[in-house]
Amino acid sequence: MRTLLALGAALLSLTSAPAPPAAPPAAPPVVPLPALMADTGGGSQLITAVAPESGATTGTVTWWDRRGGRWVRAGSAPARFGAKGLAEGATRRQGTNTTPTGLFDLPYAFGVRPAPPGTAYRYVRATARSWWCQDNASRAYNRWVEGLPADCRAGEAEHLVAYRTQYAHALVIGFNYARPVRMRGAGIFLHVDGAGATAGCVSVPADAMRAILAWAEPDRRPHIAVGTLRGPTAITRY
Fold first, then answer.
1. If you write DSSP's letter for every residue of 79-94 in order, what string do you get?
2. What is the pLDDT of residues 53-102, one digit of tens each?
3. What's the predicted TM-score (pTM) here?
4. How far apart are CA 63 and CA 230, in angstroms?
5. How many CB atoms lie under 10 A from the CB of residue 167?
6. 97 touches 107 (CB < 8 A)
7. How many CB atoms sit inside 10 A of residue 68's CB?
8. What is the DSSP secondary structure assignment for residue 105, as one 8-state letter?
9. d(CA 16, CA 176)
10. Percentage of residues in the chain with pLDDT exceeding 90?
11. How far does Cα 64 stand from its chain's mean position?
Protein backbone atom coordinates (compact mmCIF):
# COMPACT_ATOMS: atom_id res chain seq x y z
CA MET A 1 0.00 0.00 0.00
CA ARG A 2 2.73 2.45 0.88
CA THR A 3 4.37 1.68 -2.44
CA LEU A 4 1.14 2.40 -4.30
CA LEU A 5 0.64 5.66 -2.41
CA ALA A 6 4.21 6.81 -3.21
CA LEU A 7 3.74 5.95 -6.86
CA GLY A 8 0.48 7.87 -6.98
CA ALA A 9 2.09 10.90 -5.37
CA ALA A 10 4.91 10.81 -7.92
CA LEU A 11 2.47 10.61 -10.82
CA LEU A 12 0.45 13.50 -9.37
CA SER A 13 3.56 15.65 -9.10
CA LEU A 14 4.42 14.92 -12.72
CA THR A 15 0.98 15.85 -14.01
CA SER A 16 0.90 19.08 -11.99
CA ALA A 17 4.40 20.26 -13.01
CA PRO A 18 4.35 23.45 -15.15
CA ALA A 19 4.88 22.96 -18.87
CA PRO A 20 8.24 24.09 -20.23
CA PRO A 21 8.14 27.52 -21.86
CA ALA A 22 7.37 27.56 -25.55
CA ALA A 23 10.25 28.24 -27.91
CA PRO A 24 10.25 31.80 -29.25
CA PRO A 25 8.96 32.15 -32.82
CA ALA A 26 11.61 31.99 -35.50
CA ALA A 27 12.72 35.38 -36.79
CA PRO A 28 11.48 36.13 -40.30
CA PRO A 29 14.17 35.85 -42.98
CA VAL A 30 16.01 39.09 -43.74
CA VAL A 31 15.14 40.32 -47.23
CA PRO A 32 18.22 41.76 -48.98
CA LEU A 33 17.80 45.41 -49.94
CA PRO A 34 18.01 44.91 -53.73
CA ALA A 35 15.03 42.52 -53.54
CA LEU A 36 12.93 45.42 -52.21
CA MET A 37 13.87 47.85 -54.97
CA ALA A 38 11.72 48.78 -57.94
CA ASP A 39 14.65 48.30 -60.33
CA THR A 40 18.26 47.15 -60.06
CA GLY A 41 19.39 47.82 -63.62
CA GLY A 42 18.98 44.33 -64.96
CA GLY A 43 22.48 43.11 -64.15
CA SER A 44 23.80 40.68 -61.56
CA GLN A 45 25.87 43.21 -59.60
CA LEU A 46 24.62 46.27 -57.73
CA ILE A 47 26.01 48.96 -55.42
CA THR A 48 23.61 50.59 -52.95
CA ALA A 49 24.46 53.91 -51.30
CA VAL A 50 21.99 54.61 -48.50
CA ALA A 51 21.64 57.61 -46.18
CA PRO A 52 19.24 57.67 -43.21
CA GLU A 53 17.51 60.83 -44.50
CA SER A 54 17.88 63.43 -47.24
CA GLY A 55 19.76 65.87 -45.00
CA ALA A 56 22.39 63.31 -43.97
CA THR A 57 26.00 63.48 -45.08
CA THR A 58 26.94 59.93 -44.06
CA GLY A 59 25.52 56.46 -44.64
CA THR A 60 26.50 53.06 -46.01
CA VAL A 61 27.67 51.70 -49.34
CA THR A 62 27.08 47.99 -49.96
CA TRP A 63 27.97 45.96 -53.01
CA TRP A 64 25.87 42.95 -53.96
CA ASP A 65 26.03 39.87 -56.20
CA ARG A 66 23.02 38.05 -57.60
CA ARG A 67 23.60 34.32 -57.22
CA GLY A 68 21.08 31.55 -57.76
CA GLY A 69 18.25 34.05 -58.02
CA ARG A 70 19.10 35.76 -54.71
CA TRP A 71 21.03 38.93 -53.87
CA VAL A 72 24.02 38.31 -51.60
CA ARG A 73 26.08 41.00 -49.86
CA ALA A 74 29.67 41.02 -51.14
CA GLY A 75 30.97 43.91 -49.01
CA SER A 76 30.04 47.07 -47.15
CA ALA A 77 31.68 50.32 -46.03
CA PRO A 78 30.79 53.67 -44.47
CA ALA A 79 29.90 56.31 -47.04
CA ARG A 80 29.88 60.08 -47.32
CA PHE A 81 27.50 62.20 -49.35
CA GLY A 82 27.14 65.83 -50.34
CA ALA A 83 27.65 68.56 -47.75
CA LYS A 84 23.98 69.55 -48.19
CA GLY A 85 22.69 65.97 -48.18
CA LEU A 86 20.84 64.23 -51.00
CA ALA A 87 18.37 65.49 -53.61
CA GLU A 88 16.11 63.84 -56.18
CA GLY A 89 18.30 63.30 -59.24
CA ALA A 90 15.60 64.20 -61.75
CA THR A 91 15.25 67.73 -60.36
CA ARG A 92 18.65 68.39 -58.75
CA ARG A 93 20.43 71.64 -59.58
CA GLN A 94 24.14 72.06 -60.15
CA GLY A 95 26.17 73.78 -57.44
CA THR A 96 23.88 72.73 -54.58
CA ASN A 97 26.42 70.36 -52.94
CA THR A 98 23.79 67.60 -52.94
CA THR A 99 24.23 64.00 -54.01
CA PRO A 100 21.68 63.02 -56.68
CA THR A 101 19.44 60.07 -55.88
CA GLY A 102 18.40 57.45 -58.41
CA LEU A 103 19.62 54.37 -60.24
CA PHE A 104 22.63 54.92 -62.48
CA ASP A 105 25.02 52.95 -64.63
CA LEU A 106 28.79 53.06 -64.12
CA PRO A 107 30.37 53.97 -67.47
CA TYR A 108 34.07 53.54 -66.58
CA ALA A 109 36.71 53.83 -63.87
CA PHE A 110 39.60 56.25 -63.55
CA GLY A 111 42.28 57.38 -61.17
CA VAL A 112 45.39 59.35 -60.47
CA ARG A 113 47.02 56.10 -59.35
CA PRO A 114 47.26 52.86 -61.36
CA ALA A 115 44.28 50.53 -61.38
CA PRO A 116 44.11 48.28 -58.30
CA PRO A 117 44.99 44.61 -58.86
CA GLY A 118 42.04 42.67 -60.25
CA THR A 119 40.33 45.67 -61.89
CA ALA A 120 38.31 44.47 -64.90
CA TYR A 121 36.62 47.79 -65.67
CA ARG A 122 37.97 50.08 -68.37
CA TYR A 123 40.30 52.25 -66.33
CA VAL A 124 41.60 55.63 -67.50
CA ARG A 125 44.70 57.02 -65.84
CA ALA A 126 44.49 60.75 -65.10
CA THR A 127 47.34 62.94 -66.31
CA ALA A 128 48.28 66.58 -65.93
CA ARG A 129 46.08 67.26 -68.99
CA SER A 130 42.98 65.54 -67.60
CA TRP A 131 39.97 67.68 -66.70
CA TRP A 132 36.27 67.11 -66.07
CA CYS A 133 34.32 69.90 -67.73
CA GLN A 134 31.39 71.29 -65.73
CA ASP A 135 30.90 74.47 -67.77
CA ASN A 136 27.25 74.63 -68.85
CA ALA A 137 28.22 76.64 -71.93
CA SER A 138 30.71 74.06 -73.17
CA ARG A 139 30.15 71.34 -75.74
CA ALA A 140 32.17 69.11 -73.38
CA TYR A 141 29.76 69.59 -70.47
CA ASN A 142 29.94 66.64 -68.05
CA ARG A 143 32.76 64.96 -69.94
CA TRP A 144 36.39 64.00 -69.37
CA VAL A 145 38.70 66.02 -71.61
CA GLU A 146 42.41 65.77 -72.27
CA GLY A 147 43.45 69.37 -72.51
CA LEU A 148 40.91 72.01 -71.54
CA PRO A 149 38.77 73.07 -74.54
CA ALA A 150 38.56 76.76 -75.37
CA ASP A 151 34.85 76.84 -74.48
CA CYS A 152 35.35 75.23 -71.04
CA ARG A 153 36.53 77.68 -68.40
CA ALA A 154 39.08 76.34 -65.90
CA GLY A 155 37.00 77.79 -63.07
CA GLU A 156 34.10 75.61 -64.24
CA ALA A 157 36.09 72.38 -64.49
CA GLU A 158 37.92 69.95 -62.19
CA HIS A 159 41.62 69.37 -62.79
CA LEU A 160 41.55 65.70 -61.83
CA VAL A 161 45.14 65.34 -60.66
CA ALA A 162 44.56 68.17 -58.18
CA TYR A 163 42.48 65.69 -56.15
CA ARG A 164 45.16 63.09 -55.61
CA THR A 165 43.49 61.60 -52.53
CA GLN A 166 39.86 61.59 -53.66
CA TYR A 167 40.58 60.56 -57.23
CA ALA A 168 43.27 58.04 -56.47
CA HIS A 169 40.61 55.59 -57.71
CA ALA A 170 37.05 56.32 -58.83
CA LEU A 171 34.05 55.11 -60.80
CA VAL A 172 32.07 57.50 -62.98
CA ILE A 173 28.41 57.53 -61.91
CA GLY A 174 26.17 57.88 -64.94
CA PHE A 175 24.12 60.74 -63.49
CA ASN A 176 23.18 63.26 -66.22
CA TYR A 177 25.73 61.56 -68.45
CA ALA A 178 24.12 59.91 -71.47
CA ARG A 179 22.14 63.03 -72.47
CA PRO A 180 23.39 65.86 -70.23
CA VAL A 181 20.85 68.43 -69.11
CA ARG A 182 22.49 71.82 -68.52
CA MET A 183 22.46 73.00 -64.90
CA ARG A 184 21.46 69.51 -63.66
CA GLY A 185 24.99 68.66 -62.51
CA ALA A 186 28.29 67.22 -63.66
CA GLY A 187 31.21 65.22 -62.33
CA ILE A 188 29.41 62.81 -59.99
CA PHE A 189 31.66 59.91 -58.99
CA LEU A 190 32.12 57.12 -56.49
CA HIS A 191 35.56 57.93 -55.13
CA VAL A 192 37.91 57.78 -52.15
CA ASP A 193 37.11 59.79 -49.01
CA GLY A 194 38.55 63.24 -48.62
CA ALA A 195 38.58 65.34 -45.46
CA GLY A 196 34.79 65.43 -45.04
CA ALA A 197 31.51 65.49 -46.94
CA THR A 198 31.62 65.71 -50.73
CA ALA A 199 30.44 68.34 -53.20
CA GLY A 200 27.84 65.87 -54.49
CA CYS A 201 29.68 62.61 -55.05
CA VAL A 202 29.58 59.41 -52.99
CA SER A 203 32.85 58.55 -51.25
CA VAL A 204 34.18 55.55 -49.32
CA PRO A 205 37.47 54.66 -47.59
CA ALA A 206 40.41 53.89 -49.87
CA ASP A 207 40.45 50.16 -49.13
CA ALA A 208 36.73 49.91 -49.91
CA MET A 209 37.21 51.71 -53.23
CA ARG A 210 39.96 49.29 -54.20
CA ALA A 211 37.77 46.35 -53.17
CA ILE A 212 34.86 47.63 -55.28
CA LEU A 213 37.07 47.98 -58.37
CA ALA A 214 38.44 44.46 -57.89
CA TRP A 215 34.86 43.15 -57.48
CA ALA A 216 33.08 44.96 -60.32
CA GLU A 217 32.70 43.02 -63.58
CA PRO A 218 31.48 45.03 -66.59
CA ASP A 219 29.91 41.95 -68.21
CA ARG A 220 27.59 41.68 -65.19
CA ARG A 221 26.29 45.23 -65.82
CA PRO A 222 26.70 46.72 -62.35
CA HIS A 223 24.69 49.81 -61.42
CA ILE A 224 24.62 52.07 -58.39
CA ALA A 225 21.44 53.05 -56.56
CA VAL A 226 21.60 56.13 -54.31
CA GLY A 227 18.83 57.03 -51.90
CA THR A 228 17.50 57.27 -48.37
CA LEU A 229 15.90 54.77 -46.02
CA ARG A 230 12.44 56.27 -46.51
CA GLY A 231 10.56 59.26 -47.88
CA PRO A 232 10.41 60.74 -51.40
CA THR A 233 14.03 59.76 -52.08
CA ALA A 234 13.76 56.22 -50.64
CA ILE A 235 16.17 53.89 -52.38
CA THR A 236 13.42 51.30 -52.83
CA ARG A 237 11.74 53.66 -55.33
CA TYR A 238 14.57 53.29 -57.83
1. EE-BTT-EEETTT--T
2. 999 999 999 999 999 999 999 999 999 999 999 999 999 999 999 999 99
3. 0.88
4. 20
5. 23
6. no
7. 5
8. E
9. 73
10. 87
11. 10
